[in-house]
Amino acid sequence: MNNSGQDKFLLDGLANQNRDIIESIYKSYFDMISSLVTNNKGSFDDAADIFQEAMIIIYQKSLDKDFELHCQFKTYLYSVCRRLWLKKLQKNKTSGLHVEEFDNIVAVETDIEEHQENQYNFQLMENAMKKIGEPCKSLLEAYYIHKKPMLEIAADFKYTNADNAKTQKYKCMMRLKKLFFSEHKNKR
């Protein structure tokens, strides 16, 4: 199913209150919204509230037969959540910037384009990580995702010391960059 077909499927499922589709939306997109909120002075609970509010808004829109998405579902969800979060920040006065002022600084379209570009790059990076192979994949995940120190990585991967583990991490990063940029060049 292409993106526009998938997006229509999600909107229709939301309009019909299809529990499986609603759960799928939560599983697919909540982390993205949680990052948006928690990286901008919010908590996990704030993110859950914003996500729920956005789902209600999109549900109401989905009931309108004339409503059409002009972007991907996730982009629309992201922009609705972003606006709701900015309004909440303004209301709570945790931000010295008014929503209207913020929109003048960063146009919503710019934010959406940046988000789409980031999503595209994340997908390319995920593809590169799948191709890199072992032990590089596990080593990079241990360092960058699990935030393990080099001494622990050296022990886990049976390197003689942290410097050797660091050297191997560097080599793996160079391979990953090569794969990423090769993928990037082929997709453009």
Q: What does this protein structure show overall?
A:
- The structure is a single chain.
- The chain is mostly helical.
- About 6% of the residues have low confidence.
- 78% of the residues lie in helices and 0% in strands.
- The chain folds into 2 domains: 105 residues; 82 residues, Arc Repressor Mutant, subunit A (Orthogonal Bundle).
Number of domains: 2
Q: Which percent range fits the helix content?
A: over 70%
Shape assignment: elongated
Strand content: under 5%
Q: What structural class do the secondary elements suggest?
A: mainly alpha
Rg on CA atoms, Å:
21 Å
The count of helical stretches stands at 9
Alpha carbon gap, first and last residue = 22 Å
User: Topology as H/E string?
Assistant: HHHHHHHHH
What is the arithmetic mean of pLDDT? 81
Characterize the biggest β-sheet. none
Number of distinct beta strands: 0
Uncertain stretches: 97-108
Secondary-structure map with pairings?
Blueprint: H1 3-15, H2 19-38, H3 44-62, H4 73-92, H5 99-105, H6 108-132, H7 136-145, H8 150-156, H9 162-187
Helix pairs in contact: 1-3, 2-3, 2-4, 3-4, 4-6, 6-9, 7-9, 8-9
Descriptive terms for the model:
single chain; 188 residues; mainly alpha; Arc Repressor Mutant, subunit A; 9 helices; 78% helix; 0% strand; elongated
What's this, in brief?
By secondary structure, the chain is mainly α.
